[in-house]
Structure formats: structure tokens, C-alpha cells
Amino acid sequence: MGVLWDKVRFDLWHRKARTLLAVLSIAAGVFAIGAMFGLADQMLSGMNEAHQSVNPSHLNIILRRPIDRETAAALTDIPGVVGVEPLNIATVRYKTAPDQAEWQAATIVARDDFENQTFDHLELKAGEWPIDTRIAVERITSSHYGIAMGDEIIFEVEGTDRAFPVAGLIRHPFVPPPQFGGNAYFFVEQSMMARFGFPEGQFIQLLVQVEPYSEAYARDRAAAIKEELAQQGVGVSLVLYQEPDRHWGYDTVLGITVVLQILAVVSLLTSVVIVINTTTALITQQTDQIGVIKALGGTTRVVARVYLAGVLIFGLLALLVALPAGMLMAFLTTRQLLLLFNIDYDVFRFSTRAVVWQSLAAIVAPLLAALWPVMRGAAISVREALASYGLGGDFGSSRLDRSIERLAERVMPSPYTIALGNMFRRKGRLLLTQLVLILAGTMFLMVLTLSSSMTHTLDTELDRRNYDLRLFFFQPHRSDRMADLIERFPGVLSAEPWYSVSGTVLREGEEMEDTGGLGAELFGIPAGSDTYQPLIITGRWLSPDDTGRVAVISRETAEFNDLAVGDTITVDLGDLGAADFEVIGTYQALSLIHISEPTRPY
Q: Could you tell me which of 542, 574, 587, 590 has the fewest CB atoms within 10 Å of its CB?
């Protein structure tokens, strides 16, 4: 193989442009594989690791009115509830300077003991924990809004607005990213919550863990907690569920990364086609050399080894370029994207799976791609090779070739006829090229269609809501007075009061499964209201002509509990008593902020 290896080196070195094109084309696909597969692995694993490190709660329960520590601690007497940590959270308005014209929305959080947290651990990044009138700012709030330690924040409180110095920088594991509309987050000592209307020693939110954990058992224990609190006259506004081993944004990121991985594979297929075309062109150009090698005693295997060795070198050179570049891109992109989820990712890592896929993509994929043109060229006879027919030299021998040639001669000028003949001269290459172009076009349309579909779905859902703002009150108020008060504000066209109450929904005495986080949250709406018109799946929506107790429930609740239009459910509202409701329809709920169980009050 000494002389033949000299030929391989000669072809690679003296055809530098072709070698560079082949190496870069393979490297592009291999880089895409490494970057996208590495990004997916590191993003998902990084999110889960960060989530698990904070000892996440299984249930995040927001109450309708505050409770004291003793009431919260007593919930651990419920079988399966192994821990309850109370805290406070409230929406406030703030300024960073007295002369600032507009107030900004913010969320304040107060833990019972910042230095001895049980669940959803906050991390002190700089400065000190909130104490007395010194507060702390969430770190991505600090970065996004330009609020630094030492600045003063003016909160709108009852009485005189007051400035509070920022003395700490805290990482909150579950804060909504400000880039996507999340509020600014601040942290205050529990005693300061009295300034915002919270009674001393009272809490509005509970973090709960259950054992043994399963999604079904967590929902079951949430229902038990709701029932226990309802007996004490405490309603539940919202229950958020989270898995202990999986980050809350895992499914969203997984869907995005799957699309990116598919696009990376398409990129690799494009590189493969270029390898096929390059190899085919090389063998066509060197058909006479193949004839000489065979005339001197070379076999088909020897010829194939020569050209496959060249392709292997293409792949190894491409891997040398793409492997470090893909690893670096995956790490840097992961680090940047994880910051959106408030997760640190500072130590360089790489995905072993991505490295394996890159190696296979750089070595195996080009060899498999080149195998067909190489074996076809290596199998050519000495006579055919020396006669300079080459690959594709038999064009015109088939009926299809002759039909294409005759048609082209009739309707096309000569240059286009020649071009069309050259295109069909190598039908296999034409087919592969078209396949990749079709696949790439299909993926492009899929991505655009998916984006358009999601946007249209969200726009349609928002169009069903004929309101711009929802206000929740911890205590009941006179509906006519509240509506009149709100309509006095400049810019408010109308206000519609709804009544909501938490309870337990039963079917034939058996408690139904909570599917939407709100579970047995009932909303009573005025007769004839068009403020919200949900997407009805079965049955119908509420009508002013309804004369009995009727309800429309979410499709998920109906499916989980095998309910259908015409069935009767019992709603136990604790101190308010229980009543039967006929299910007249089911609707599609798209998010947790949807109405859970709308009913007509009678």
C-alpha cells in the first residue's frame, strides 16, 4: 500500500480546495451535532441538579387568608405530610428614586427564618440576609433592573412611603425571569410584613413535602390539606405541584432541544450529501487512474480502501475541528441559557453522549455516505475505465434518459438541455440531494408552523378573555361597592365581580382527583357575563336561562375522573355547606391561571 498511500496523500495535499471543502462540510454537521446534543444534555441535567440541590417542596400552597405557625405545623399530623414551612409573599409597588414618576410592580418574600430554611432553599450570594429594615434583592432582578447593593428601594406602604437599603444579594431558585415578564423580587424580614398589611406571625403560603412521593400521592395529600384547612375556614387559592427530581422548566426546554437536535441531524445529512458528491466527482475525475491500478493488478478491495482512506482522513480532520468547537459552544450556550432560570453553571463540562455522537458523525457517517460511490467506482472494469466512460457515462441508455433528453430538446435551449442531462446523469446523487432539500424544507416549515400555531392558540385564548386585569382579595367585599370603586379609576371602562371559594368536589361520595392545581376552586359569575368565553369541548357554556345548579368543568378534570355532561357532582364548601351541581359542559384549560370550575351561584 506504500504507493497507494502516496496517492492518498497526493490527492489530499494537491487538491487543497477540495480537501478543505470536504473537511468543512463534515465539520459543520459534526459541530451542529455536538453543540445541539451537548446543549440538550447539559441544559436538562444542569436544571435538574440545581433543582434537586435546594430540597424542593412537593406542594406550594397559596392560601386565601393568613394562618399562624401552629396551624401550619399541625398539618404534619396529616398522614404522609412530612414537612410544612410557612412563608409570606406579596405583590407591592416600588421606586428606586423619590423623583421617579411611575411605580413598578415587585414581589416581596419573607421567610420565617432565612438562616434555617427547610424547603426551596434561597442562596445568599453577597452581603447579608434581610434583617430589621435592611432588605435583599434577587440577583437576576439586580442584574436586569440595575439595582445594586447599597441602593435604596422605596416601597408604597400604608401611611408614609419609606426607603429601605439593599444589604444582600440572594438567588431564588423559582423566580420568573424578568426577560419574560417576571416581577422584580425583594426579600424582607418576617416582622416587616406588618408594613404591608400582614398580621404579625401570620403566613399566606405553605411549602410542603410528602412521603413517599408520587405525583398521584402529592395530589391526594393536597386534597387532604385543603379539606383540613377548609374545616378551619381557610380557603386555598392555588396549589402548585413540582417533582423533586425534575426542574419545573424541564418539559419546556426538552421540547425546544428536541427540535434543535432534529435540525442538527438535518445539518449532518446535508454534510453527508456533500461528501457523496465530492467522492463521486473525485472518482469520476480519476476513472482512468482506477483503470491503471486495476490493470497493474489492483483489486476492487484495494481501490475501495484507497478512496475510503481519504474519506476517513476527511472525517478525522473534521472531528479535530468540530469536537472542541462543539463542546465549547454547548457549554457557553448552556451557561447563558441557564442564567435565565437563575442557575449557575461556571465549571466547564461536556456531554459524553454528545462526544460519542460527534465521533460517529465524523467517522462512520462519511464512510457510509462514501461507500456507495466508492464501491460503484471501484467495481468498474478496466475496459470501461480506460475508455473514459466513467460513472454516469451510460446516460442515454435507458428509456427514462432518452425521454428526458427528447423532452428537453423540444422545450429548452441547448445549454439548458445539457444541464438537465447532466443533472439526471447521476440519478442517485440527484435523489439524495432532493431528499435532503425536501427534509430541510419540511423542518423549516415545521418550525415556522409550530411557532405560528402556538402564537395563534395563545392569541385565540386571550381573545376569549374580555378583560385586562384580575384582582384577588383575601377577604370578601360587597361586589357593588368594589365594582363602583374600581370603575372610578381613570382608564377603567368596567369591572365585573366574581365570587370564588375553595372546597372539595365529590362524585358519589368519593373525592375527585385534583388535576389543575386549583382543584375544587369554584367561581360564581354574573348571569349573562361575557367576560370569559372558554373553548367548550363538550356540552355548552353557562346561560342566563339556567334555572338550577349547573357547572362547567375542565376537560382534564372530566377525563381524570371519568365525568361526562349530565353527571352530577357534589361540592363541599366547608362552613358554607354542600350542594349538588349538574355538569353541563367541559372546557379546555391552557394554564393554571384559567378558571378552574366555573359555576352559576343560586
A: 590
